[in-house]
């Protein structure tokens, strides 16, 4: 493994960091989350058209840049540093890889070029309330619990003369209120032979209701999606050959690497702002950053951030390490954000201070994609550290091998 970045990768990082420094400061972030879209549409168009951000990891035949997961991870690190509200995570990290993996050739040709140029945003709408379980990060997703249970649980799909129709709802859908396309997980085959497939639902489809939810982290727009006899298109060609759980697990490992890079960026951003503050804030006639106790705390935070960054970069190269890298990055982001509030003193405890943007991002990400201890527990179980692993989890009490 060559850990050095190429000149092109360094240029992606530098260009994006410079652009976001000019157009995505704390004031711009707060203004963007209060728009109807939950992000700045003009900035998103610029990121898509000038930098090709949503198409970085898409094949060139579909209008993408044909880059690897590393380039997208570097972009996610910079958007995380600025706490940028954008459709990048839902569109490029979650939806686009699933369309690429499962979509029929005609579906890929119709949708991916529009995603690559920023004209179409997309998201993944899964019932059951656990994105981490559905992506195979905290549990084996083949058990099906993430898709909702029971005869009428989750979202139900029915095939009639007019095509597929969906009925049900999904909560906490990233950018669900503004995405132009939804990938909806739904049960098919009735109760005895139920299986979960993915369906394409247009934002203009009949019977679709989308409600933006109040969320802890305003920079992560969440929505409730309700479907009432809504027309949909099956993602893929041969229903019997579609392996949704396998595609979700593969996407989950790559997404974990990108989320880890984004969390590292947020932690680094919080640390940089804290270092700048302690250099300026004076107490007893000297900058508080000159006190040894403050230096030690900042040094500990720096080590945490750099360790999490190394893990995130490795996961971008080897997605199998994604869940563990995500656990380390989420933990680092939570710790650094909490210390940022402490080291800012009285002003850091005011709700309006920018330090709280990082605190809320760290807490919300762990709720959406963790928690940390479950990410590690599942990864350890998959590695056989606790003995035999069943679909329901590791068998406790078995001797280590």
Report on the structure:
- By secondary structure, the protein is α+β, with helices and mostly antiparallel strands.
- It has helices spanning 7-23, 26-33, 41-50, 69-81, 88-102, 105-116, 131-134, 244-280, 292-317, 322-343, 355-369, 372-382; strands at 122-125, 155-160, 163-174, 181-188, 195-202, 208-212, 222-234, 282-283, 286-287, 389-390, 393-394.
- It has three domains: 7-88 and 109-119, Acyl-CoA dehydrogenase/oxidase, N-terminal domain (Butyryl-Coa Dehydrogenase, subunit A, domain 1, Orthogonal Bundle), CATH 1.10.540.10; 123-244, Beta Barrel (Butyryl-CoA Dehydrogenase, subunit A, domain 2), CATH 2.40.110; 246-394, Butyryl-CoA Dehydrogenase, subunit A, domain 3.
- Strands 1, 2, 3, 4, 5, 6 and 7 form a seven-stranded mixed beta sheet that branches. Strands 8-9 form a two-stranded antiparallel sheet.
- A hairpin with a 2-residue loop joins strand 10 (389-390) and strand 11 (393-394).
- Helix 8 packs antiparallel against helix 11 and helix 9 (292-317) runs antiparallel to helix 10 (322-343).
- The longest helix is centred in the middle third of the chain and has 37 residues, at 244-280.
- The protein is globular, with a radius of gyration of 21 Å.
- The two termini are 28 Å apart.
- The model is unreliable at 397-401 (pLDDT under 50).
- Residues 6-118 form the Acyl-CoA dehydrogenase/oxidase N-terminal domain.
- Keywords: FAD, Flavoprotein, Oxidoreductase.
- Its cofactor is FAD.
- Belongs to the acyl-CoA dehydrogenase family.
């Amino acid at each position: 493994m060559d850990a050095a970045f190429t000149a092109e990768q360094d240029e992606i990082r530098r260009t994006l960091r410079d652009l976001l420094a000019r157009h995505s400061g704390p004031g711009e972030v707060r203004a963007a989350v209060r728009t109807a879209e939950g992000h700045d549409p003009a900035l998103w168009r610029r990121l898509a058209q000038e930098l090709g951000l949503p198409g970085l990891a898409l094949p060139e035949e579909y209008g993408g840049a044909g880059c690897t997961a590393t380039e997208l991870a570097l972009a996610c690190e910079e958007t995380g540093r600025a706490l940028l509200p954008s459709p990048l995570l839902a569109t490029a990290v979650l939806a686009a890889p699933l369309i690429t993996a499962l979509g029929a050739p005609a579906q890929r040709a119709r949708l991916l070029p529009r995603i690559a140029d920023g004209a179409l945003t997309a998201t993944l709408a899964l019932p059951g309330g656990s994105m981490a379980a559905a992506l195979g990060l905290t549990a084996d997703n083949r058990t099906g619990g993430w898709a909702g249970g029971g005869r009428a649980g989750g979202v139900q799909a029915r095939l009639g003369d007019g095509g597929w129709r969906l009925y049900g709802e999904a909560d906490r859908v990233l950018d669900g209120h503004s995405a132009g396309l939804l990938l909806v997980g739904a049960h098919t085959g009735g109760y005895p032979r139920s299986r979960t497939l993915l369906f394409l639902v247009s934002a203009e489809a009949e019977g679709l209701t989308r409600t933006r939810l109040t969320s802890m982290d305003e920079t992560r727009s969440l929505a409730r999606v309700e479907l009432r006899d809504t027309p949909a298109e099956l993602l893929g060609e041969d229903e019997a050959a579609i392996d949704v759980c396998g595609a979700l697990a593969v996407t989950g490992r790559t997404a974990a690497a990108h989320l880890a890079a984004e969390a590292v960026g947020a932690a680094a951003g919080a640390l940089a702002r804290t270092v700048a503050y302690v250099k300026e804030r004076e107490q007893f006639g000297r900058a508080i950053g000159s006190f040894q106790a403050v230096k030690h705390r900042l040094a500990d935070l720096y080590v945490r951030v750099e360790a999490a960054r190394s893990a995130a970069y490795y996961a971008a190269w080897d997605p199998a390490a994604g869940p563990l890298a995500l656990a380390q990055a989420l933990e680092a982001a939570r710790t650094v954000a909490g210390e940022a509030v402490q080291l800012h003193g009285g002003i850091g405890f005011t709700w309006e201070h920018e330090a709280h943007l990082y605190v809320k991002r760290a807490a919300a990400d762990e709720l959406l994609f963790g928690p940390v201890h479950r990410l590690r527990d599942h990864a350890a179980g998959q590695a056989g550290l606790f003995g035999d692993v069943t679909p329901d989890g590791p068998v406790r009490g078995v001797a280590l091998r």
